[in-house]
Amino acid sequence: MQPSDKALVPFVSVDHMMQLIHRIGVHEMLKGLADYIEADFKRWELFDKTPRVASHSAEGVIELMPTSDGEVYGFKYVNGHPKNTRDGLQTVTAFGLLADVGTGYPVLLSEMTMLTAMRTAATSGLVAKYLAPKGAKTMAMIGNGAQSEFQSLAMQAIAGIERVQMWDIDPAATEKAVRNLTGSGLQVVACASAEEAMEGAEIITTCTADKAYATILSDNMVGPGVHINAIGGDCPGKTELAPGILTRSDVFVEYPPQTRVEGEIQQMDPDFPVTELWQVMTGQAPGRTSASQITLFDSVGFAIEDFSALRYVCDQLEGTGLYHDLDLLADPDDPRDLFGMLQRAKA
Ligand code: NAD
């Protein structure tokens, strides 16, 4: 990626992002993203970390997610509005930026609606690789909205899933997901209930959207030995699992100060035990220790995953031409003559 001028910032539009994903291949890119996320989780202690800054409203949330590894700074703007789909709008949209810590100059601006779906799925696949039962082949996919195909393909590419059993309260969502996954190599089955979708599944993904303490899975639905990939509970007052499931599970999280506020564990005491995923990835904490254990990834989405995803995109852009040079930064010939530049523009 070589912008012709230092003051021009490469911008990856939605169209360019889609072209990039197809050029690399969806499965390949999910695996590449997972590698970058894993590499960054393994150097976790280097990062500047903070829970995301959330602005809540009656219908949704708008969040800023910053982090830095000391050399590169990144942030994502993201919203979550479950009612949006009723008006033909996405539940989740996003864009993000990487900057050089040395100068503070941005080096990449990118759409992140597509990229968030890819990075969330890549993280799910990566975590399942560590925690899912050995040889897991079947996943229940509960909630068949915008994220669901990405989740399914990442579990296929990264965790070796061969069959996905889909359920959504809206049959049109399931029909859409089944249609979209045709030809993926996955065996895809539309189910008539959550219970049917979970029959024989070693991995259970919940990815629904409702601004409520929902009970997508009740305690009696979850048997021993499964891995639960809980994606949709990611905001205060927005959960998917009955608390009884949490007490029977070993719970793995991205960044506890954020997950305790936003994740499934917001329903539990503040000292409810959790394991941090970076410690599992670096070998400092155990992952799955028995065949009967229930492992639960209480996913909320953390800034480092977005940082990794932007870093990945940045590294893939070179030579592709899949970006626009954006006139984002004022760049007077004399850096102190900003006003002179304004005056010359009038002439
Ligand atoms: P979406 O609105 O496109 O899809 C949600 C689907 O859930 C809809 O099809 C809806 O019919 C279905 N649903 C609602 N209640 C249900 C129920 N009780 N049983 C079965 N299905 C039900 O949303 P999306 O973009 O796919 O996102 C899904 C969720 O994932 C959202 O809550 C979003 O905030 C969350 N999310 C989390 C992360 C993360 O990093 N953890 C990242 C992105 C999105």
Give an account of the 3D structure.
The protein has two domains: 8-114 and 304-346, ornithine cyclodeaminase, domain 1 (2-Layer Sandwich), CATH 3.30.1780.10; 131-301, NAD(P)-binding Rossmann-like Domain (Rossmann fold, 3-Layer(aba) Sandwich). 33% of the residues lie in helices and 24% in strands. The chain has helices at residues 14-24, 26-41, 113-131, 148-159, 171-180, 194-198, 243-248, 256-262, 277-281, 303-317, 338-346, and strands spanning 8-12, 53-56, 61-68, 72-80, 94-100, 106-111, 138-142, 163-167, 187-190, 203-206, 213-217, 227-230, 239-241, 249-253, 275-276, 294-298, 324-327. Strand 5 (94-100) and strand 6 (106-111) form a beta hairpin. It is globular, with a radius of gyration of 21 Å. It has an eight-stranded parallel β-sheet with strand order 9-8-7-10-12-16-14-15. Strands 2-3-4-5-6-1-17 form a seven-stranded mixed β-sheet. The model has no long low-confidence stretch (mean pLDDT 96).
* Strand residues, percent: 15-25%
Overall CATH architecture of the largest domain: 3-Layer(aba) Sandwich
Bound molecules: nicotinamide-adenine-dinucleotide
What is the third-level CATH name, the topology of the largest domain? Rossmann fold
CATH homologous superfamily classification of the largest domain: NAD(P)-binding Rossmann-like Domain
Which descriptor suits the 3D outline? globular
Mean pLDDT: 96
The rounded Rg comes to 21 Å
CATH class of the largest domain: Alpha Beta
Largest sheet: 8 strands, parallel
- Summed up, the domain count is 2
